[in-house]
Amino acid sequence: MEGVAVILKTSPATIGSVLHRAKHATDKLPIDLQVGTLLLIHQAASGSTTPPRITHLMKVAGIRRDLSDETDKIWGRHWDWIIDGEGLREFVRPIPIGRLGTASGKNYGQGAQKFVYLETVDLVDLARSELFALKPI
Description:
There is one protein chain. This protein is α+β, with helices and mostly antiparallel strands. It has helices spanning 15-21, 70-75, 120-128, and strands at residues 5-10, 23-26, 38-43, 53-65, 81-96, 115-117. The protein has three helices and six strands, in the order βαβββαββα. The longest helix is centred in the last third of the chain and has 9 residues, at 120-128. The radius of gyration is 14 Å and the shape is globular. 25% of the residues are buried. The model has no long low-confidence stretch (mean pLDDT 89).
């Protein structure tokens, strides 16, 4: 499996708009983010009822600065960058964030990061697992 995968943390308040529009926003871009990068949408915990998990994936279709306050209109606050996605798909079952580091031993849920790169060995492990099954279109 080639390419880079980035896990993008998404709050319960913004997940609906992220999925509806296949767009994400951030103030700081991942350094290696480019068209074609695989984005794993990490839905942050929602109280004690919903644990953090990866629910969807999409590929980066484009990256642009928000010069027209589009993010303000969508999410009610300004973000510097808009990440346009394509091919948004939902996993059959949400992937627990703690499952992602099985091959490398990396803890992807640690800290208050907005995004994190998935180690290649973990991406390959995940892609070979039953967890990578996507719902039909």
